[in-house]
Amino acid sequence: MASLRLLLLLLLPLISSSSVMAEKTRHFKWDVEYIRWSPDGEESIVMGINGQFPGPTIRARVEDIIVVELTNKLHTEGVVIHWHGIRQLGTPWADGTAAISQCAINPGETFLYRFKVDKAGTYFYHGHYGMQRSAGLYGSLIVDVAENEREPFHYDGEFNLLLSDWWHKGSHEQEVDLSSNPFRWIGEPQTLLINGRGQYNCSLAAQSSKPPLPQCKLRGGEQYAPQILRVRPNKTCRLRLASTTALASLNLAIGGHKMVVVEADGNYVQPFSVQDIDIYSGESYSILFTTDQDPSKNYWISINVRGREPKTPQGLTLLNYLPNSPSKFPTLPPHIAPLWNDYNHSKSFSNKILALMGSPKPPPYNHRRIVLLNTQNKIDGYTKWAINNVSLVLPTTPYLGSIRYGINNAFDTRPPPNNFPKDYDVMKQALNSNSTYGNGVYMLKFNTTIDIILQNANALGKNVSEIHPWHLHGHDFWVLGYGEGKFSEKDVKKFNLKNPPLRNTVVIFPYGWTALRFVTDNPGVWAFHCHIEPHLHMGMGVIFAEGVHLVKKIPKEALACGLTGKMFMSEKNN
């Protein structure tokens, strides 16, 4: 027995040191402020971090703790940052959603985000207050596997592309337009950006641009000059992709190269080969490609608009085969993207995404089903989006604190609708387009299985139904399937329970439905919303709450705003 105690004492320092090595705390000190920048050659006012756009890339390993000390230097508006795809297990107040998980950080104030990254993958972060994502508040977040683990695929090197869209009209003016009566649409973006860089009113591939554009004349060093991907022949490369677009759905291709999809939203998928890839706002992927083409040439990497009639020129950068000069333009034109409304192409891609063998499978049955109907509506003459005829307007006191501490009158306690009328025709304009505002919460029983049916419908205009990518905070969900028209009970037998992919963002196609399943195993209050920035601004979202009584102490900075929150904190301190 004495020798066993001695052995344990000798091993204890080794055990302790190995656990410390497995977990590393990574500290960042960020100032958010407006800066002058030229994302596409036209100088604009951009929301930057530490004087740069896009914001700094965070790189960490599984089980690392991220600490971001965020100071708001915007002078006249609040700010928060959402860590897109990070589930915030045990730290729901760090999700970075104003009026949901925390108070907006006031000008001059500092908020400490502290959370663990529990799963390897390709993620990003962005503003989640007003339309600050449209203003440029975003950056990449990459989580590598733990030091002693390996990815289920091999590659020689990797690149990271953060995709976005850019308007010359400022985000505040866009907000005013969207909230005007008569309604003013923000229009299509002027430019598509790759890692914050694009070219306005000129093209890198002028000879093949449609509509015709003059050749871009770059001297090098410009803020809008493309970031070139330099490769060696006969290597396998990993390309991480994430879309933080405010509006545009995109199609990406690498001229002459096949791509193999291996990761989606931080989850491994059964590898499959494609010539191009559709990526919607809020989604992320990893693809592998081999540099097996003519090594004496360079090749275009292109992004094009999907799902909306394209009025924005394609975005381009260069795949540069070394030792070729990057000034040697490709002899072949950029990949010809599928037609913007070729939804069969999009659906074919989505249906190829299946979970890697050995991935977690969904529970076989649900405890509750919620059907969410997307409609475009009118409220007192204003154009809004609504879910089950309720347009989301957030309260002044964050849900997380008000539910956790039982604060009265913080939000509407009446439950939102669980479904929509059976006689509603999703294929036609609504007979009555009037809607109502609301901020009720779907209260979900903890540790139960929830099915969500996202149902698309005709918008206000005749024969108009749009693509909507939906993002769930705090969870991954299984995508059980897609369908045409109105969902019915007979569609349940079509659900894929064998190998559905885990995602945090999924698309609903025009006049269609998408079925999801998730388990309420993460105490907190979580947003579920369309990731198109103007659509969320116009009310397209819902709020889920689960196990909030299990949430530990919430920082006072995440609670003390709004009249009810301030009153509660005042009573608590007295």
How is this structure best described in words?
The chain contains six helices and 32 strands. Helices cover 11% and strands 35% of the residues. β20 and β21 form a beta hairpin. The strands form seven sheets. The chain has a six-stranded mixed sheet, with no helix packed on it. A six-stranded mixed sheet has the order 21-20-25-30-27-28, with no helix packed on it. A five-stranded mixed sheet has the order 11-19-18-13-16. The protein has 574 residues and is mainly beta.
Counting DSSP H or I runs of 4 or more residues, the number of helices is 6
- Cα distance, first to last residue? 56 Å
* Average predicted confidence as pLDDT: 93
| Spatial shape | globular
Biggest sheet features: 6 strands, mixed
Low-confidence stretches: 1-21
The count of β-strands is: 32
- Helical content, roughly? 10-25%
Q: Tell me the radius of gyration.
A: 24 Å
| SS-derived structural category | mainly beta
Pfam families: Cu-oxidase, Cu-oxidase_2, Cu-oxidase_3
Enzyme class: oxidoreductase
Function: May be involved in a redox system involving ascorbic acid.
Organism: Anisodus tanguticus
